[in-house]
Amino acid sequence: MNGIIGGTSLLNSSIFASWDERRIETPYGDIYAKVKDNMVFIQRHGNPPAPPHLINHRANIWAFKKLDVNKILSVNSVGSLKLKFKPGTFVIPDDFISLWSISTFFENEMKFIVPEMYEGERKYLSALCKELRINAYCGGTYIQTAGPRLETKAEIMMLKRFGDIVGMTMASEAILCMEYKIPHVSLCSVDNYCNGIIKVPLTMEEIGRNWQNNMNSIETMIKAIIEKDFS
Question: pTM of the predicted model, to two decimals?
Answer without folding.
Answer: 0.93
